[in-house]
Amino acid sequence: MYRVDHEIYRWERRQEVFDMAVSLVVLSLGFSIVLARKGPLGGASWWDVLHLFPFVAFVLLFAFLGHELAHRQVARRLGYYAYYQADYYLLPLAVILPLFFGFVFAAPGAVVISPYRLYGSGDPKRDEFFIAASGPVANIAFALVGLLLWETSPFWQFFAYINAWLAFFNLLPIPPLDGSKMVKTKPALWLPTIVAAGLLVWRLW
C-alpha cells in the first residue's frame, strides 16, 4: 500500500511541475502578444513577441508562480494537502484572446487544497483566510521590490505594476477570487490588505 501511495505522490509531483511550466509559458506568450500589439486593433509582430517573451516570463515567474506557490506552501504548512493544477480547458484562452481581442484572460489553473487537514490542528476559518491571503500578499511584496528599483529600469516598473495589479484584482470580494474568501472569514484584515494593494496600483499607474 505504501509503495502505491508513494508512486501516486511522485506522479502528482511531476504533473504539478509540468502544469506550472505549461501555464507559465502560455501566460507569458499571451502577455507578450498584448504588449507587442500595435494599438487595440492592431496586429502583433512575432519578432516583438519573441523579444518580449523572456522578460515577461521572468516577471510572471514571480507574479504568477510566486502567487500560486505562496497559496500552496501556506496550505501545506497548515497541514493540508495542496498542489497546483492547470485548467487545460481555459488555458488556450490565454493566447486566443490576446491574438484576436488584445487582452489576457489569466485563469490558467489553481491550487487544489484538500478540504480536511492531514495533520496539526487549528481554526479552519483562520486557515482559509491565511491560505487565501498568501497569494496577494506575495504579489504586494514583489511590487514593493519593483518600487524600490523603479528608477533603475522600465523593466522594474512593469514588474511592480503587474504584481500590484494582480494583488488588487485577486483581493476583489468576488467568488472565486481570494478576496471573497478573505472577506468571508476575516473582513477586518481583508480591508487594509486591499487598500494597500489599491494604493500601490494608484501609485504605480
Automatic annotation (TrEMBL):
This entry's Gene Ontology molecular function terms read:
metal ion binding; metallopeptidase activity
Q: How does it sit in the membrane?
A: Multi-pass membrane protein
Instruction: Reply yes or no: does the keyword Transmembrane helix apply.
Output: yes
Q: Which InterPro entries match?
A: Metallopeptidase_M50B (IPR052348), Peptidase_M50 (IPR008915), Rip2-like (IPR044537)
Q: Which residues cross the membrane?
A: 20-37, 49-69, 89-116, 128-149, 155-175, 187-204
Q: Which residues form a coiled coil?
A: none
Q: What is this protein called?
A: Zn-dependent protease
Per the UniProt record, the source organism is Pyrobaculum oguniense (strain DSM 13380 / JCM 10595 / TE7)
